[in-house]
Design goal:
149 residues, single chain, 2 domains, Muramoyl-pentapeptide Carboxypeptidase, domain 1, mainly alpha
C-alpha cells in the first residue's frame, strides 16, 4: 500500500510527510503542519509541472512515485532513519516483492527485516543497514523484472 491521495483540505501525517518531502526537494509548501492548504497545493503544482506531470495539485500514486524518485541521495540508512531516501528504498523493495506493508519514509522493523532479506538474497553482509553496496543492489532493482523468491 502506498500513501493516500492528497488534495486541498487534507490533513494528517501523510500531508506532513508530503510537506517535508517538497521542502527537501526545494519546493516551498509552507510549514510542515499537516494541513494541505493553498501554499502546499501551489508547491505540488510546481513540482508536478517540473517533472512533466499535469499540474492538478492532487497527490496520487504517480505524483508520490515522482516525489520518491526525485531525491537520488544515498545516505546510510538504518532503523530510525526517515525521509525521501527511505521512501525510495521502501517503494523499490515493495515493488520487487519484499514484504513491506506500506511506503511511509520511516525505517522501522519491517524495513529492516526486508533489507536483511534483500542482503541475504544478494549475498551481502546481513546487517539491516543500507550502505553503498546495498544501495547498488536497490538501484539495480529498477533494471530487473519483479523479484521472485
Amino acid at each position: 500500500m502506498s500513501e493516500p491521495t492528497l488534495k486541498l483540505g487534507a490533513q494528517g501525517s501523510a500531508v506532513h510527510d508530503l510537506q517535508e518531502a517538497l521542502t527537501a526537494l526545494g519546493y516551498h509548501p509552507g510549514p510542515a503542519d499537516g494541513y494541505f492548504g493553498a501554499t502546499t497545493q501551489n508547491a505540488v503544482k510546481a513540482f508536478q509541472a517540473a517533472v512533466g506531470l499535469s499540474p492538478d495539485g492532487i497527490v496520487g500514486p504517480i505524483t508520490w512515485r515522482n516525489i520518491d524518485e526525485a531525491d537520488q541521495s544515498e545516505p546510510v540508512l538504518r532503523r530510525g532513519s526517515h525521509g525521501l531516501p527511505v521512501r525510495r528504498l521502501q517503494y523499490r523493495m515493495q515493488a520487487f516483492g519484499y514484504p513491506l506493508p506500506n511506503v511511509d519514509g520511516r525505517f522501522g522493523p519491517w524495513t529492516e527485516s526486508a533489507v536483511r532479506d534483500l542482503q541475504a538474497d544478494r549475498g551481502l553482509t546481513v546487517d539491516g543497514i543500507v550502505g553503498r553496496l546495498t544501495w547498488n543492489v536497490v538501484d539495480a532493482l529498477e533494471n530487473e523484472g519483479p523479484y521472485v523468491s
